[in-house]
Amino acid sequence: MQEQNPIVLMNFSGIYREEEFWKNRQVSWIELQDVCGTNCYCDEEAIAEINKRTENYPTAGIHFIDSGNYHYMTRLWLTRMDQPFCLLVYDNHTDMQPPAFGGILSCGGWIAAALEELENLKYVILVGPDEAAYEQVDENLKDRVIFLSREKLQVMNDEERNWFLRETVSEVCNWRKSEGLQEDAEKFLPLYISVDKDVLCTEDAATIWSQGDMAFRALARYLNVIMKEQNVLTLDICGECDPDCLEHNDRNEYVNRELLNMWKEWRKHHEK
């Protein structure tokens, strides 16, 4: 019988073999380096193989999904959500770009694909990209997106940022029987959180994509606020560096370890 909230590591690039944060813990290692057609774009054959290898794992848990090239994995995990839910994303990019090759799933367009294809996805809260990037997003996608730009974050103090996120998440998750849920449904919809470490400043993370300016201590505060008050089902993390460029990987190691510890503490508190 599978653990209901496992620690999952998805090995696309081999980077996690160079890190220590997960060792001496009970983890589920999903080997994917041998699957073709996965780097940045994921073709139908690769999707089928990935789904086969992950089918015995629940959506709930903490998932480490390698570099930002594989952020589309969030979209594949979300397919399994069998009830209405909300999605909170921290990212330096919108990930709502139209696909360059027909309808193929990509790391740059997976949020758009989720909004278009997943009926159970009610709202996306996107935190981190700059306003110019969001202006390029298809207007038809914005109806169910609450956007907090890098520019707005820069002019808010900690109290304002925490208040905005707390209130925003509470509002969008409070989608109850008036929208079709049953009388005995949970007050708040479950929340799926996805963190791309490229939202962080270069002092706190080293990724293969352009990075934002958020400090990790700020991200940790935001997540603590949300996780204390919401029914967080899943936390996934991407944004690893290239395995051939490890000179600054201690930053990623630290962030991964802290996020894993935060998740374990939250689960312990939630299960009391």
Structural summary, described in words:
This protein is globular. The strands form two sheets. Strands 2-1-4-10-9-5-7-8 form an eight-stranded parallel β-sheet, with helices on both faces. The protein has a two-stranded antiparallel sheet with strand order 3-6. The protein has eight helices and ten strands. α7 links the parallel β9 (191-196) and β10. With 272 residues, it is α/β, with parallel strands linked by helices. The two termini are 22 Å apart. The mean pLDDT is 91. 38% of the residues are buried.
Give a short synopsis of this structure.
With 272 residues, this protein is of the alpha/beta class. 32% of the residues lie in helices and 17% in strands. The radius of gyration is 18 Å and the shape is globular.
Q: How are the elements arranged and paired?
A:
Elements: E1 7-11, E2 28-31, E3 41-42, H1 44-54, E4 61-64, H2 73-78, E5 85-90, E6 105-106, H3 110-117, E7 121-127, H4 131-135, E8 145-148, H5 150-155, H6 158-173, E9 191-196, H7 216-229, E10 232-238, H8 249-270
Notable characteristics:
32% helix; alpha/beta; two-stranded antiparallel ribbon; 272 residues; globular; eight-stranded parallel β-sheet
- The helical percent reads 25-40%
Number of helices: 8
Strand content is 15-25%
Q: In total, how many beta strands?
A: 10
End-to-end gap: 22 Å
- Which assembly state applies to the chains in this document? single chain
What kind of sheet is the major sheet? 8 strands, parallel
Mean pLDDT: 91
Taking Cα atoms only, what radius of gyration do you get, to the nearest Å? 18 Å
Morphology: globular
Unreliable parts: none
The run of helices and strands is EEEHEHEEHEHEHHEHEH
Broad structural category? alpha/beta
Read across the widest sheet, the strand sequence of neighbours is 2-1-4-10-9-5-7-8
